[in-house]
Hints:
alpha+beta, about 120 residues
Amino acid sequence: MKKIALALVLIASPAAAQSPTVEDLCIKVAKHLLMTDTLHTGVIQSFPELKPPGARMTYSTRDGVEKKDMVDTIECQFENTKAPFKVKRFCVASTCYSADEKNEENKRRFDEVRVLLEREGL
């Protein structure tokens, strides 16, 4: 009985929770940028070993879209592979967003996503 109680405590503890990955963070970036709670992912490629670490994926905000039919893409780059990840840059289709972006609207969108991630401790 003591073993079961210990196992339940470990499962419920924050340390037992899985740490987010660069893939998870890229999904969060997309959700924040697109202002949606629902995001279906297709192909996800992750590159945590590269400098900067990052991920790219296909996605859809519509229900019922098959993975093979998802053509919208996002690519994300981060400074770190664990929290705080510190988003460095992300691109949706051919539009990129970063801190040193010349286009003021794109820089603003980058800052908004960065702030939302920081609020979540990411």
